[in-house]
Amino acid sequence: MAGPGNDLDATRAWTKDQWRRALLAERRRVPASVRFAEAMQLTTLLTSGRVVGRGQTLCAYVPIGSEPGSVQMLEEVADHGVRILLPIVSGAGPLDWGWYDGREYLRPGPFGLLQPIGERLGESALRIADVVLVPALAVDRSGTRLGRGAGYYDRSLSLAAPGTPLVAVVRDPELFDQLPSEPHDVTVTGVLTPGRGLLRLR
């Protein structure tokens, strides 16, 4: 990765905001053809049964901008018999949740997110998820996840049932040895990348 991963001495002192700026800039440089190929790889992984199985509930999200994945990925996972929960931003508290019923039932929400327009299930709906996919800009090998800074997932992930896999989704170069962390950060238990697949972190 050009930037954050190259000079460990320089990045060791970086703040979270410095990391975010560098990671977002790097993602913007990724060609559309590469993003498409990575979305296809993620789709294959998520429909293989190795991450989540038929009849299970996957907490996911609709990738936006340069985030890895696609709406089509969610369509194909749902077609494999997986129920999908999507986040709904509601105020400053933990995320609300709703079922994914198809792309035609998504509408723009805060921060450019696409959200389901059906019934809202409440913050505690996260407890029914068998696997939680978590958006991230980067993750390190101890499970520290770097998000965009709004804090919604840090306020929400503690509501998942004990032992539920919390899996950050990033590009292959976005897995690092160490990222800055704070006491309120909720660590993830795994990472999913297009090329490496599902890796357990702790």
Automatic annotation (TrEMBL):
Substrate binds at residues 62, 67. One of its GO terms (molecular function) is metal ion binding. Its cofactor is Mg(2+). Signal peptide: none annotated. It comes from the Bacteria. The keyword Zinc-finger does not apply. GO terms for biological process: folic acid-containing compound biosynthetic process; tetrahydrofolate interconversion. PANTHER family: 5-FORMYLTETRAHYDROFOLATE CYCLO-LIGASE, ATPASE INHIBITOR/5-FORMYLTETRAHYDROFOLATE CYCLO-LIGASE. Belongs to the 5-formyltetrahydrofolate cyclo-ligase family. This is 5-formyltetrahydrofolate cyclo-ligase. It comes from Actinokineospora terrae.
